[in-house]
Design goal:
Length: 245
């Protein structure tokens, strides 16, 4: 196994960081450079990265989202946003229409942002540091828009807390290969694999997991989805719904 694959397959999420550790500007630049070199559809680079170092802004993030105190206690917090603003400005300069109705442009920009985040995460771990993605930023989108003066056509996707871990974490078991990897066609699910995964995770015994994997997501999808994202994309002029003429 080469060093890159070893790094990828030993990924762990860290949430406890040394508050006295300061990420160097060189390390941050390396992480950002790796993120910016991520693959992008048509080289559109439909994302932006907002580097949050201001303690007051990060404190406000934690006030909004108290379940993730590491946003404040990590060395730096990066916010990855789907960004269709730049190309809106291009269309304005070129005096052309800017048609981003429907889901495809948003999916494209979200994918670009996610790929950049993953590159940043891998770069972070290659430096011997730790990180954890934060998808719950999508729970308070209007507040983030105001706090960070986001323009139209921009949607926060996820954050990334980066720092020096102070608690060692075990590599978390993933779903069995048979449930995720398909060859040539989609294979019907053998539910026994899911039941075995419940058992595996019980034995893994992560303290923050209070429910079986199956129960956690049965409960999650039984609730109403986060409609705030739907509303926010409309106010941001992303994925607009066409009206009848």
């Amino acid at each position: 196994m080469n060093e890159t694959i070893k790094l990828l397959t030993s990924h762990r999420s860290y949430r406890q960081f040394d508050e006295t550790y300061t990420l160097s500007s060189e390390e941050l630049d390396q992480i950002l450079a790796a993120a910016r070199q991520a693959p992008s559809w048509m080289n559109g680079q439909f994302y932006s990265i907002i580097v949050l170092t201001d303690p007051k802004i990060r404190q406000e993030f934690v006030r909004l989202n108290p379940g993730n105190p590491h946003i404040e206690k990590s060395s730096v917090f990066l916010l990855f946003v789907a960004d269709l603003y730049r190309t809106a400005e291009v269309a304005k300069q070129k005096q052309t229409a800017y048609n981003i109705d429907g889901l495809d442009p948003l999916i494209t920009a979200t994918t670009d942002a996610a790929l950049a985040l993953e590159n940043a995460l891998v770069a972070t771990e290659s430096l011997g540091l730790g990180a954890v993605p934060v998808g719950s930023v999508r729970n308070y989108l209007p507040e983030i828009k105001s706090l960070l003066t986001l323009p139209d056509y921009v949607l926060p996707i996820a954050g990334l807390s980066i720092g020096k871990p102070i608690v060692e974490m075990k590599v978390k078991p993933r779903l069995p290969k048979e449930t995720v990897v398909h060859y040539n066609q989609y294979t019907p699910l053998d539910y026994q694999h899911i039941e075995h995964y419940d058992d595996t995770m019980r034995k893994f015994g992560e303290a923050r997991e209070t429910k079986d994997w199956t129960q956690k997501f049965a409960d999650y999808f039984a609730k109403e989805p986060n409609r705030g994202v739907d509303d926010f994309t409309k106010t941001q002029k992303i994925a607009q719904k066409k009206t009848d003429e």
